[in-house]
Known about the structure:
CATH topology of the largest domain: Pseudouridine synthase
Shape: globular
CATH class of the largest domain: Alpha Beta
CATH architecture of the largest domain: 2-Layer Sandwich
Distance between the termini: 27 Å
Number of helices: 6
CATH superfamily of the largest domain: Pseudouridine synthase
Amino acid sequence: MNVAEPVIRLSSPDTRESWAVPVVYEDDHLLAIDKPSRLLSSPDRYDPRRPNLMRMLHDGVAQQRPWAASRGLQYLANAHRLDFETTGVLLLAKTRPALVALANHFGSEIPRKTYVALACGYPPEDEFTVDAPLSQDRFRPGVMRVSRGGKRSCTDFRVRERFTSWVLLEASPRTGRTHQIRVHLKHAGFPILSDRVYGGTELFLSSLKPRYHRSADKTERPLLTSIGLHAWKLELPHPITGERVSIEAPWPREFEVALKYLRRCAPRPGGVPPKT
């Protein structure tokens, strides 16, 4: 890890937005970052001018911004993608050989990806699997749906903690389809909090605290302003050395705050997290 540059600072001249992107793992061949919410991983096919992570990173390498120059970076490419609102581990290759090896890993479903999700509902089992093929929704561009003729898609889920009407889940996708975890949880009847596209409701403090006094002149802000889904861990063989690499991204502050209030105000007997 290059401790002199633990954060990569990016900006978009088109929208004048800026992001501080933490580095969570680094060696001579790999760079892993904690992707912020509400930032595209790659260019939008419908609107190429929207800010996206890879374009800003490529611009930074080409212009030899301080974070790139201090690392001697001449190449950077993403091995996979995360959804616009999803936070967490995003792995990048610093060399072409590393990218080719990573592409083979991800194409063969070798990496173990573990997400955490705050979802609505109460799964009857502590562990369950959703094996449902996915395809594009013909009537809603950019939205996915379960479809008999879709691509194979499978996700394993494990309950970490239960609350009165909500649940904290671990999700381990075996495949890497667009919006896979979100669609699978909707299909199972447990949509992710604040995921408006796939049926998730917002979580308000007023719904958790019976004596909560809402200000008459202010609109209450939800505890989660983005979807409750975070790419927590990524485990895979190193593309060059073959050694096992495990990378983690800390849970977002909003996620932790929502979890704190759920534990305080909506506990369920026997709902403590299992030992890991």
